[in-house]
Amino acid sequence: MKLKIVMLAALFFVVLFAGCIDEKETVVPTPTPQPTPTPAATVIPTPEPTVLPTPTVTPVSREPKTQIVWIKTFAFTPRNPTIHVGDTIKWINDQERPKIDYKLVSEEGLWENHTIMYGNRFEYTFNRSGNYTYYCPGYGSAMRGTVTVLE
């Protein structure tokens, strides 16, 4: 009977521990990563430059003007006038005391030396742009000037 008890005890232990020991390993499957689809590239059109028409510059015609240069108290007023092509300078001798006749000379030879008597005038129309010097000989820098002619 002892043998039966030992056998029974052995069987009891085998059954008892049979649930704890597993010969087969259980493998938990690892999920396979699924590829994320790449979104399609968004096509952004290249902006076309806006072409603006080039404005046509129409020259503004201007009426020719006359500017006066006074000759008085042994000086020109204004001494250095600025005008445009086609404009005229009018020199007026207004020297009263003493009444003097002035000779007006162009350094560039635009006109022949011209004598302007008291109360009289001399006019010249400038048809080219540039700087033109004029003077009355014998009176120094006070009676010397430059006409600037712009386009």
- CATH fold field value of the domain at 66-150: Immunoglobulin-like
- Which homologous superfamily in CATH is the superfamily of the domain at 66-150? Cupredoxins -  blue copper proteins
CATH-defined architecture of the domain at 66-150: Sandwich
Oligomeric state:
single chain
Assign the structural class, choosing from mainly alpha, mainly beta, alpha/beta, alpha+beta, or little secondary structure. Answer: mainly beta
Structure description:
It is a single chain. This protein has 151 residues and is mainly beta. The protein has a domain at 66-150: Immunoglobulin-like, CATH 2.60.40. The chain is 11% helix and 30% strand. It is built from one helix and nine strands. It has one helix spanning 2-18, and strands at residues 66-72, 75-77, 82-84, 88-93, 102-106, 114-116, 121-125, 130-135, 144-150. Strands 3-9-8-5-6 form a five-stranded mixed sheet, with no helix packed on it. A four-stranded mixed sheet has the order 2-1-4-7, with no helix packed on it. Strand 8 (130-135) and strand 9 form a beta hairpin. The longest helix has 17 residues, at 2-18. It is rod-shaped and about 175 Å long. The termini are far apart. The mean pLDDT is 85.
Gist of the model:
This protein is mainly beta. It contains one helix and nine strands, in the order H-E-E-E-E-E-E-E-E-E.
Write the layout of secondary structure elements.
Blueprint (H helix, E strand, L loop, with lengths): L1 H17 L47 E7 L2 E3 L4 E3 L3 E6 L8 E5 L7 E3 L4 E5 L4 E6 L8 E7 L1
Parallel strand pairs: 1-4, 3-9
Antiparallel strand pairs: 1-2, 4-7, 5-6, 5-8, 8-9
